[in-house]
């Protein structure tokens, strides 16, 4: 069984380490910007998980290396691995950035390492909750063929779903993931701001909206976006949409562009199945311009 070491002891690295340890995998330990961060992460994972003071020490004790730093540090870490002088031929080294490709690790290929990127489609608030979230995460793999094959087999053993993508597809893939996660948070915050205009503060509005959000997401999961869509746009209710815009324009005109942008996307979804009345489509298109 492979022994995996982590470079980077933040939320993602800690969560993945905890998840792997609970699955009976050997986690050598962590190397981080500060030794204290490495100690904290290793303590969360297991009694045998170590905190390393140098990248050299971690490389010597690990078969596989997961780089879980922020994206901007990956190239620096790559240089640090090269400069360590450790023999890395045959070692699998992958980063877990959603946006970056395995090309960031190109200098390691020249040293004989097998390189890839492995990204969990999940968000991580902290190590413990992140480890639980890993149980449902789907992964993307991208990199050189041998590394992709090794990671695919590994994920199969762990019972995790995954898909393999090309390096050129990575930015679009990450854009989609960011919209589904970060963009959703932005949309919810937008709704909360509108609630404030009604006089309902976030402390009361958020608990009121969360059940609606959960049900919507569940409907999407069960039915897909087209069949899950409800509301005035799906119905072609032009009058209600016009009332929304007038109300927002009257008290917070700077929120109107956001409403219209979201309306255009919603209309695009509605037109795929539910809304076929061309006159209503034309009127809604005009309102969202």
What does this structure look like?
- InterPro entries: 6-PGluconate_DH-like_C_sf, DUF2520, NAD(P)-bd_dom_sf, OxRdtase/DH_put_Rossmann_dom, TM1727-like_C_sf.
- The protein has helices at residues 11-22, 35-45, 55-60, 74-83, 106-109, 127-134, 145-158, 170-198, 202-223, 225-228, 232-235, 238-251, 256-271, 278-287; strands spanning 3-7, 26-31, 50-51, 64-67, 92-95, 114-120, 139-143, 162-164.
- The chain is an alpha/beta fold.
- It has 2 domains: 3-165, NAD(P)-binding Rossmann-like Domain (Rossmann fold, 3-Layer(aba) Sandwich), CATH 3.40.50.720; 173-287, N-(1-d-carboxylethyl)-l-norvaline Dehydrogenase, domain 2 (Orthogonal Bundle).
- Helix 7 links the parallel strand 7 (139-143) and strand 8 (162-164).
- The mean pLDDT is 95.
Write the layout of secondary structure elements.
Elements (H helix, E strand, L loop, with lengths): L2 E5 L3 H12 L3 E6 L3 H11 L4 E2 L3 H6 L3 E4 L6 H10 L8 E4 L10 H4 L4 E7 L6 H8 L4 E5 L1 H14 L3 E3 L5 H29 L3 H22 L1 H4 L3 H4 L2 H14 L4 H16 L6 H10 L2
Parallel strand pairs: 1-2, 1-4, 2-3, 4-5, 5-6, 7-8
Antiparallel strand pairs: 6-7
